[in-house]
Each structure stands twice: as C-alpha cells, then as structure tokens.
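Standup, Tuesday
Yesterday: got the pipeline producing structure tokens again.
Today: sanity-check two examples.
Blockers: none.

Example 1:
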Amino acid sequence: MYYKTEIPVIWDTSFKHFNYKDDPIEGLQQDIWRAQGYNHDRTYGAMYGYPDDMPQWVEDVSKYLNLKNCGYVFYKMKTLDIMPIHVDHYKKYCEVFDVEYEQVYRAVIFLEDWQSGHYFEINKTAIVNWSAGDTIVWQGDVPHSASNIGTVDRYTLQITGVI
C-alpha cells in the first residue's frame, strides 16, 4: 500500500550541484534484471547520501512526513537511466535502528516539476505530471520502478524512516 501527499517546497536547487556517485546494482538483483532483458550498460542512477553532508532542509522535510530516525539519499537520473521494478530491502536501516522491516517507511519526494520522459511507477500505477513537492510514501515491500527517457535530469529525495 502507498499514498500520495504534498509537502511545501522549502528547498533551493543546491541538490543539482552535489557530487553524485554512480551506484550500480550488483549481485542477485542485477542477475534478475538481466534475466528479464535489462542488459544495458548504463547505471541505475547516481546517489548523494550518507556519509555526505546534508542540507538542513532535509530534516525539515521529514517533519512534514512525521518520520523519525531518517536516512536521506538524493537521487539523480540522467537520460536513459532506469531502475526496473523492485522492492526495497532496508537491511542496513533495520540493523542501524534496530527495527523490523514492516516498521520502515520510504518516501520519494519529487524535487522539481515533472518533465517529459520522467516516470515513476508504484504498485502497478504510473505516476507522471507531478509537481515539485509531490511525495509518494509506502511501507514495506511495495514494488516500484523509475526511469528517465527524457532529456532533462530527474531529481528526487528519498527518505527512509519510521513513524
């Protein structure tokens, strides 16, 4: 199950200038995607997160979602970056905060207005035409995917936490 919400845009565009790092998926998940035909050599997006310094406003954003013990990751998808359908495992988060998988929430916040070619899917529902501040929140093992087949970079903030 997931829900949509909207939070006020309290951020600037500094996220566009972070030192994003490619974080290719490896191991079992990559094997599964390759077996499904995802054989491209592109990364699945670039991330900026722990241990990198976060702007103060990320904590303010998480307060709108009533989340605590938050982990933050900025995600940048360039043209032709894709993240095929998957469920999040939260393994490290559960270890660090000593919580059960079922207690963990994930929020994806769209940092800019939707651009042609940007795509997000959750639980077999396509999400497009979003506005900056639109947010998708789910708990547990909800399948989701993302891609950018447009010509403008796609930026989101991913927050992981508990209520």
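Example 2:
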Amino acid sequence: MFFDAEPEITAKQVEAALDRVRPMIRADGGDIELVAIEGCDVRVRLKGACLGCPSSTITLRGGVERVLREEVAGFGDLITD
C-alpha cells in the first residue's frame, strides 16, 4: 500500500502568501519575516511596530494564517518567534 507524501511547502509559496499581507502590516509600521519552514509548519517573526502590539495576534491569525491556508497546500501551523 502506498501513501501520498505530504506536499512540500516551498519558501517561494510562503513568500508569495506573505507578500499579500505585507502591505497591511507595513501600513501600521511593521513587517513580517519568514524564519523557517519546518515540515508543514511555517515560522515567522513580526518586526517593527508589530512587536508587542496587542493586535498582532489578530493580524497573525486573521490575516497571515488565513492567507497561508488559502494559498499554500499542506500548510500546517503558524509559529511565531
């Protein structure tokens, strides 16, 4: 019996998805950086005004994670540094 391997997530796919949310993040004085892809999980780091911002969780879950789920097949979890 053969099992399909999990789809490989590439940095190019993730960066393309992050590019969709970057304008919103940069408009508030912040930015987002791809730190690593760990299997199906994506590790990012918020920068600038986003550090310590009370709305950063909403941005990550409602913006970044949503776009990654829509655009990156096999995406697992969003991890923040």
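Quick observation on example 2: Helices lie at 11-27, 56-71. The longest strand covers residues 30-38.
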